Write the structure tokens for this entry.
Amino acid sequence: MMKTRPNPSLMRMLISAAASAAARTLPSALPLTPFTAALLLAGCMVGPDYHRAQVAVPATWKELPGWTQAEPEAAQGPKGDWWTAFQDPLLDELEPLVQVSNQTVRQSYANYQQALAEVRVARASLFPVIGVTGSLARERSSTGTLSSVSSITSTPSGARIVNGGTLEANASWDIDLWGQVRRQIEEQSATAQASEATLANATLSEQIALANAVIDLRITDADIDLLTHTVQAYTDFLRVVANQDQAGTVPPSDLISARTQLESARASLIALGVARAQYEHAIAVLVGRNPEEVDVPHSTQLPALPAIPAGVPSTLLQRRPDIAIAERQMASANAAIGVAVAAYYPSISLTALDGFTQSPLSGLLHMSNYVWSLGASATQTIFDGGQRSGQVAAARASYDAAVANYRGTVLTAFQGVENDLSGLRILAQQAEVLDAAVRDAIRGAQIAQNEYEAGTVDYTTVATALATQVTNQQSALNVHQQRLLDTASLIGDLGGGWSGQLHDAQHPARAVMPASGAAAADAGAGSPANVEASRTQGAAVGP
């Protein structure tokens, strides 16, 4: 068997074919140097370059009482394990479990991994496809022609059976001359970063939901303690009324009224068990467990009411994951315009083949059976009935919708923080008044009971005083609950402990700041005219 020479490199063949095609298409005045060939292969990128849409950002929070310039540390809002500010051991134990066991978070993580895989799929289109093909064939030919080739076997009937085969390497490369593939990579990368921000947003949302559930559970325990104490007080007072009824010093209706009041309090106490069980079940699901696996003991300690620094409004664009989602979706929609515009330009492909083919099979790898081929092709759509122009128009409309969604998300974020700040400010004033009302109601109930026992007032006065005391105590508890919930909501609306960093979708180990991180630099220039200019000032090439 003859020794064969080393095969040429497939990549070298592809580059040579590209240079040959470029020599035919470039103007004769432009010499085809290696540098110009590299520029040709690098190509350009049609469509608009991305510039983050501008939004108007206020300098201060309207509802922040006694506003002063924030300190550098406070300007960033809550950080890290924000739930420790509530000083509740149950929160400290369960909050870290959300990001590893919560099923909504796990689903968002899987979606993020899928988005990263889609980026790898898009990047693969930048490179040539190389394959190897081998085949063997055995066929029966007619008897009309005689042959002296020894590898042909003749049957007794005179028919010929021929063995043949091929062994070939092939490559094809669709050159990204107009940047369509790179725009697709840009689109998929932005989508992957939006998915990463969705993961952060899901984690934060579930953590806030867990904090709310724990707060509701603790307040329910406090309400149970309050009604338990109330039932005991009503029981003691019923004993006083019963003694006076036996002595004949009070009408029978007083005994019935006292017993009714006690039974109503007991019924309300029992009803709280339903709400407590539901909060406990919700806590179990939020940490990824079955409800029967979680048993939260009764606690008499309420979470602390922390003071959360609101920071400055401009930092909100960096810290809110939902704003990052909207911003990255806007970047993805912008890249999709380039993908649609690239359809107006011809597609150029290179192909190469290198290998051996022989029939009959004998001597397949001889140099005389060595074959190769190089080819280049270009395809240009002449008429498509407006399909491409419709696709470009749809991509631009999708980008405009993404811009509107981004701005709406920012406005909603500002609204949420202002609502939280106003709620905390007003509830603090209400809590101060209710504290005084509770003190007066407790004192009034004690006086009414003493006067009833002395026979100077009727039972209606006592019943009213006792009911007023319980109502004011429950109102104070409800206001405290709402202050805790508004604090948790403020933490969530400020971005929680999210750092504001997203990862490079093509290199996930690298952390980068999202485009919205530059918001503070140009806050206030958010007119529609500026946004339209930012979309069109890029290198928009094509129709």
